[in-house]
Amino acid sequence: MAAAITRVFDLLKFSLEQPQQEFINGKIAGKWVNYSTEEFCDAVDNLSRGLINQGIGKGARVAVMSHNRPEWNIADFAANQIGAYQIPLYPTLADHDIQFILKDAEVALIFVADEDLYNKVKPNIAAVNPEIKIYSFSEVAGAQNWKTLVDDGKASTQINLDDYRENVKPEDILTLIYTSGTTGTPKGVMLTHNNLVANFENSAVVMPEGVKKGLSFLPLSHIFERMIIYLYLFNRTSVYYAESMETIVADIQHVKPNSFSTVPRLLEKVYDKIMEKGKALTGIKRGIFFWSVSLAEKYATDAGSWYNFKLNIARKLVFKKWQEALGGEIVVIVSGGAALNPRLARIFWAAGMPVFEGYGLTETSPVITVNHFGGTMFGSVGEVIKGVEVKIAQDGEVLTRGHQVMKGYYNRPDLTAEAIDKDGWFHTGDIGELVNDRFLRITDRKKEMFKTAGGKYIAPQILENKYKESIFIEQIMVLGENRKFPSALIVPNFETLKTWAGRKGISFTSNDEIIKNEQVLAKFNEVIEAASVGFGKWEQVKRFALLPKEWSIDGGELTPKLSLKRKVINEKNNNLIDKIYKDAEDYKAPN
Questions:
Q1: The dihedral formed by the CA atoms of 237, 241, 247 and 248, expressed in degrees to the nearest 10
Q2: Mind listing the pLDDT tens digit for each residue in 65-90?
Q3: What is the 3-state secondary structure (H, E, C) of 61-122?
Q4: DSSP per residue, 371-427
Q5: What is the pLDDT of residues 517-533, one digit of tens each?
Q6: What is the pTM of this model?
Q7: What domains sit in the chain, N to C, each tagged with a CATH number?
């Protein structure tokens, strides 16, 4: 009989029942580091004892600022099995946010990945509290290494960890996760052991049999990826961390994963690269390629035998190569963090790589709904998971309650009361609808909807997702609050644009120059007009401006889960936006 799991660290005892040679693995500085189940659990226990010797116990605060690697998980389990709160910090956080979190969470000890993050964190610790202890995972000159704590713990055999484990209850806080959101000061989301345990147990429906190897590259600092890792362990799936987004192609080929979790943007990029290769084909090969893509766009889970006959041909001739590009052994891909284009989902399903879209927030630990085998609807974020309730408020907002809802915002009872009403319903801030009382469809962010000067409501995400279907558009933000009509800021896909410009005989000297070219502007006008078909006249983007540089987390325009920070983008491009509307002063808004 499997060990009962009521607290997150119970996953370790559960895993030891069927130990693996490659349990948690990571590629660090070009080399794979593998931990067997026993090695991993020993390292966790020794680190726990080392932390206890440093005065860390129940309720103490241990932070981790690192890219994905096995030590992240070791530090996480080592802290949570002695009742300490684990506080993840995104490696890209700004100094003022680091200082706020260190102070607000009353961090006692922090683990950092390497020299860069050590040098980033050290002055912030000095500014907040020089008593905070800092340990690095990689060897860093002048820094304490995490292995000194492990060695210290190994020698401290007199410490009985069972006493500490027994003192941790399912309702105790596991982690404080600070959400930057798109505006304002970070808020510390308090998630309990039970929040996460119930979430990964009831989200396990997404992970079918045969998923033995999972590749991870989304940040563990975010609750989505962290829950997925717990789910992998619950599913007895070996975990492999890619070294970085730059090495991901090689890492996928090495691991040949059965599963990975992703954000839609990455799938869009994979698709765009495949389409570029398809366009370079000639003759019958080109014809077969585009016939296969056209067939894939019509994919349905209940398609008839004639369709499936044609699809099998397309898979043998075309889609087998797509599968090989992602390692050749994909069973399932899990997508979250942003809306997945239904057309893209159909194409990946047709290619034999099912993509399951789910939905949730940090405050809901995170999964509320998810698609899965036997319960999939394209264009939806899936069915409500077991133990969770969803209802749609009168204004269209999605409300939820159940085991997944956070304990509250740390030190902010005022914000907690705003988010969770007296009946226990958490207000997500998203607008949605339940289709057939079964599948949830998210239509927009409540706070992101805006009203034009003509009094018409615009849901920007729906428009943005449609426009992003074009291979020419890398990023787009639709705006126009209190203006006569919607407009957009567009970051072109410069690789695609360069290829197109070459075919048209347009010289491409720099991004700054190409976005001023009249032919390029005319091309983007065509793209926007074609994608606007089907939307109301008042919704359609009438004017746009092209930008020379991609928005990024480091640049401050994106949140760590790659959502647009609309306020920041608006402020940075204020003059350009004013110019869009000034140039169109003679424009008559449609009724």
A1: 40
A2: 999 999 999 999 999 999 999 999 99
A3: EEEEECCCCHHHHHHHHHHHCCCCEEEECCCCCCHHHHHHHHHHCCCCEEEECCHHHHHHHH
A4: -BTTB--TTS--EEPTTEEEEE-TTSEEEEEETTS-SEETT-HHHHHHHB-TTS-EE
A5: 999 999 999 999 999 98
A6: 0.85
A7: 10-168+212-257 (3.40.50.12780), 260-445 (3.40.50.12780), 450-583 (3.30.300.30)
